[in-house]
């Protein structure tokens, strides 16, 4: 053996520092989740009533069958199916949009939005000077175009169908040939349809275009009142889904069990 013994060297393994462990990942994930929840709450606070109701309904019923507030249509967050429950919400939404028009003060008395048994009725009433159509013309003027385009943009994402009607007063049309109030009321309704479809309304969203001439007066006691000349846009309710009776019918190949006597 050698007289000089070799020294014994003990090597210690250094562990990873705390920064290389996994605990920070859990804390970071919790922080990101909390921030996401905060931003969702801030977004909801600035969203419309329809979105708040829809999100709240989802958490109450994730399957979405308890309260059908939304729709399957793509588009803005303002989409919802028009029902008797949320129809006042659409009315308020349209009134807010109308107030933003440049000449709202001149038009506010000529626009009426009412809730009816058929749906939401929007009436564009004429004045003696001609508010939305010049006298005797079937083409919307500047005010008529602005309002019809705005309505199309507000209604385009609804799954509900729309009916457009044209009406006149009882004054005979002072045109030439066989053109009468029947043609004028129909042409104005069709002009409104074309403009609204060019501005966003789907082609299959318009269910009817009708001209009534003076047969459906707004003021029956004053047949020649200018407000009898009007365009009526009716946002109709969707038909109620029929109950599924097929699933309730007994299976013809299966005979019911006879209870023992």
Characterize this entry briefly:
The protein has six helices and five strands; from the N terminus they run ααααββαβαββ. The protein has 261 residues and is α+β, with helices and mostly antiparallel strands. The chain starts with 22 loop residues before the first helix and ends in a 25-residue tail after the last strand.
Describe the structure.
With 261 residues, the protein is an alpha+beta fold. The protein contains six helices and five strands; from the N terminus they run ααααββαβαββ. Helix 3 runs antiparallel to helix 5 and helix 5 packs across helix 6. It is elongated and about 135 Å long. About 6% of the residues have low confidence.
DSSP strand (E) fraction? Answer: 5-15%
* Total DSSP E strands: 5
The helix/strand class is alpha+beta
Q: Give the overall shape.
A: elongated
Question: How is the secondary structure organized here?
Answer:
Elements: H1 23-45, H2 49-60, H3 87-99, H4 104-107, E1 111-115, E2 119-125, H5 142-155, E3 162-167, H6 181-198, E4 206-211, E5 230-236
Parallel strand pairs: 3-4
Antiparallel strand pairs: 1-2, 2-5, 3-5
Helix pairs in contact: 3-5, 5-6
């Amino acid at each position: 053996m050698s007289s000089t013994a070799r020294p014994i060297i003990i090597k210690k393994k250094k562990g990873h520092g705390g920064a290389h462990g996994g605990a920070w990942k859990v804390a970071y994930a919790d922080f990101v989740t909390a921030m996401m929840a905060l931003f969702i709450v801030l977004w909801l606070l600035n969203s419309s009533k329809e979105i708040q109701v829809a999100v709240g309904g989802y958490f109450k019923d994730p399957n979405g069958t308890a309260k059908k507030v939304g729709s399957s249509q793509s588009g803005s967050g303002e989409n919802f199916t028009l029902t008797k429950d949320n129809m006042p919400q659409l009315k308020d939404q349209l009134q807010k949009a109308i107030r933003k028009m440049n000449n709202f003060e001149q038009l506010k008395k000529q626009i009426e939005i009412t809730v009816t048994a058929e749906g939401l009725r929007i009436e564009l009433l004429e004045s003696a000077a001609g508010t939305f159509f010049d006298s005797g013309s079937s083409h919307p003027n500047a005010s008529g175009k602005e309002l019809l385009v705005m309505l199309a943009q507000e209604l385009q994402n609804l799954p509900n169908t729309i009916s457009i009607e044209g009406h006149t007063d009882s004054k005979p049309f002072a045109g030439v040939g066989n053109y009468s109030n029947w043609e004028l009321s129909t042409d104005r309704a069709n002009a409104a349809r074309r403009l609204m479809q060019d501005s966003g309304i789907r082609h299959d969203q318009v269910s009817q275009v009708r001209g009534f001439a003076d047969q459906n007066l707004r003021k029956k006691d004053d047949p020649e009142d200018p407000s009898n000349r009007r365009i009526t846009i009716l946002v109709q309710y969707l038909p109620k889904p029929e109950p599924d009776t097929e699933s309730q019918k007994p299976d013809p190949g299966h005979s019911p069990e006879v209870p023992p006597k």
